[in-house]
Amino acid sequence: MVIIILFVLLAILIIYDLATMDFNKLNKAFKSFFSASFTAKSEIYFSITAFYLKRHGQISGAQKEFLYWYFSSQFQLHQKRLVNERLNAALARQKKSRLSVPEMLHKERLQCLVFLFKLAKSGRLNISSIDQAYLWEVKSLLKISTPVYNKIKASYIQTEYQQSTNNNSVVSSCKEAESAAYTRLGITGGDLEEIKKAYRKLAKKYHPDLHERNHFSKEYASEKFKEITRAYELLCKKKT
User: Which residues contact residue 72 at a Cβ distance below 8 angstroms, ignoring those fewer than 6 apart?
Assistant: First the structure.
């Protein structure tokens, strides 16, 4: 019985506290706390970006756009002017003192490193050796182990073999497209005059305005005409 009475009294006290609580003040307190936390986290990203700029000297247009997008999506800094102001302030601080990284959770440190890899790779096929040296330096400041660093690195940096393979794939696909274009024009090769001659012959056969005379439906003739025109344009570019 005593326990029941105590529970009832506790319930009355809770209801009274909720009834008299100033929710506006509580809401402001929560907002203030999360805003301060948000600002502190964004400052870390501005600091490591400034460190990158200090080492690199300048960044490309694609890297600038990545920064604007990142700070807008992650920290609600939607104006480029605000991003530039915060970045300039971080650069000014680093002229006076060396970069220091505050204590963070391991997950947050990994996120910082991934952010830097994305920044270094923005608008580029691969990350330069200068940037790799910088990333290694930051890896040490973030206290990230070498195996974990190498795992992240493998996602963003191609080896010489991978680059060679990719280049060979591009060359191979270009050759295949050229061969297919000759096939569409009904020839196995030839100079520009032979290509034009083959195209004119097929254009007369598949021109949409002549589909009835050539006993084709208009849809079929239009599609075939588009195919041979694309093939003709591709081969003309190759020959000029």
Answer: 78, 83
Cβ atoms 129, 91 nearer than 8 A: no
* Amino acid 8: pLDDT: 58
Closest to 182 measured CA to CA, from 238, 143, 108: 238
Contact 206, 224 (CB under 8 A): yes
Q: Which residues contact 119 (CB under 8 A, 6 or more apart)?
A: 49, 52, 59, 63, 66, 67, 70
**Which backbone phi and psi does 76 adopt, to 5 degrees?**
55, 30
CA angle, 207 as apex, 202 and 212 as ends, to 5°?
Answer: 115
The amino acid at residue 55 is: R
The whole-angstrom distance between residue 111's C-alpha and the CA centroid of its chain comes to 15
Q: pTM for the complete prediction? A: 0.53
Whether residue 195 contacts residue 229, with contact meaning beta carbons closer than 8 Å, is answered with no
35-158 to CATH, choices 3.30.750, 1.10.8, 1.20.1420, 1.10.3680: 1.10.3680
* Dist CA 179 CA 12 (whole Å): 85
Tens of pLDDT, residues 58-116: 777 888 888 999 998 888 888 889 888 998 888 888 776 666 667 778 888 899 999 99
Integer-rounded Cα Rg, in Å, for the chain is 32
Q: Quick one: fold of 177-239?
A: Helix Hairpins (1.10.287)
pLDDT in tens, 110-151: 999 999 998 888 877 778 777 888 888 888 888 899 999 999
Taking the CB of residue 176, how many other CB atoms lie within 10 A of it?
10
How big is the chain, counted in residues? 240
